[in-house]
Amino acid sequence: MNVMPFLLFAFVASITPGPTNILVLTNSQHYGVKATIPALVSGCVAASAIVLISGAGAGEVLRQYPLIRQVMSWGGVLWLSWMSWQLFSAPAANLSHGSHHRFTARAAALLQVINPKTWMMALAVVSLFAPVGEHALRDVALMALWFLIISIACLMCWAWLGKAVNRVFRTTVAMVRFQRVMALCLLISAWAGMLA
Questions:
Q1: Which domain of life is it from (predicted)?
Q2: What does pTM read for this prediction?
Q3: For site-directed labelling of 100, which of 20, 67, 136, 154 has its Cα 20 to 30 A away?
């Protein structure tokens, strides 16, 4: 497995604006970073578990049927390319307004289970980066662990950003630029994984 494209993918999937990121940011903005950590960790553990479950179940099928893996790989690349375009062309996320209800650990975990972005991300990970071979399950578990570490670090950035949001993103232009950089990183990681 080529680790660098996967790590880039995990970073972009975790750092780009999405429901969990915005809720972590908003919760931190209203209640502080310390109060946000349980939800942050819970959401990351749930997303990593989805990666592990997807990889553990799909790995054997993908190894036995290379055509399925190829179709899934192309589907993952196309979906991620579409997502990168959506992110690139989207208006700035509204960071100053959002839910004023506390984002709990339970809510964060359930959000991952019902969030199509999380499942599509897990399927993209499996189709693009899941190793094949003798130690595939061990390697998928390692991928899930790397994803957990990266996602916690990324969501901690969003939590810290919640404390400084008004100073960091003073203009809509700044948020749009950030989103466009993340969109390009997502596109590069998808195609690098496909071509590796």
A1: Bacteria
A2: 0.70
A3: 154
